[in-house]
């Protein structure tokens, strides 16, 4: 049994997301890249329940579609963006979209945050948001940074609180 369907439940034992995953990727326990609605519904905690196991992916996707339809028909508010199944797997971005993503990636700067010791790529607005959310808008000195071309950067971010 390599595939499974699962549900995310809130603290009131109400299902708010139905998904499909594989035993390898542990999708049911990965809360990254979820919609704002998912995060709103999960604000007070998430309980994961694996609902069924399958040998093949197609049967798993069919079961996911069936569950999404059933729960919606019963009146549950689900954060699912699609009706289940393969979802957006296989989506092909247009060349214009790919170019836009490349340009955005070039605007990112590799920065080491001395406050929390993270070392990752940020856009300037993303960096400001990082400090606002993680460090309550405190003034931070950024050192040992480099842009994607490898140029060294030393920056100081000013107060970001509004």
Description:
This protein is α+β, with helices and mostly antiparallel strands and 162 residues long. The chain folds into 2 domains: 3-73, no CATH class; 97-157, no CATH class. It has helices at residues 36-41, 57-73, 95-106, 124-134, and strands at residues 3-9, 15-22, 47-54, 109-113, 118-122, 140-146, 152-157. Strands 5-4-6-7 form a 4-stranded antiparallel beta sheet, covered by helices on one side. The protein has a 3-stranded antiparallel beta sheet with strand order 2-1-3, covered by helices on one side. Strand 1 (3-9) and strand 2 (15-22) form a beta hairpin. The radius of gyration is 21 Å and the shape is globular. Residues 138-162 have low confidence and may be disordered.
Strand order of the largest sheet: 5-4-6-7
Could you say which structural class the secondary elements and strand pairing correspond to?
alpha+beta
Instruction: State the shape.
Output: globular
User: What is the element string, with H for helices and E for strands?
Assistant: EEHEHHEEHEE
Low-confidence stretches: 138-162
Q: What is the number of helices? A: 4
Number of domains: 2
What about the largest sheet?
4 strands, antiparallel
Query: What is Rg?
Result: 21 Å
The overall pLDDT average reads 74
Q: How widely separated are the two ends?
A: 52 Å
> What is the number of E strands?
7
What level of helicity do the residues show? Answer: 25-40%
Fraction in beta strands? 25-35%
Q: Looking at the chains present, what oligomeric state does this protein adopt?
A: single chain
Give the topology.
Elements: E1 3-9, E2 15-22, H1 36-41, E3 47-54, H2 57-73, H3 95-106, E4 109-113, E5 118-122, H4 124-134, E6 140-146, E7 152-157
Antiparallel strand pairs: 1-2, 1-3, 4-5, 4-6, 6-7
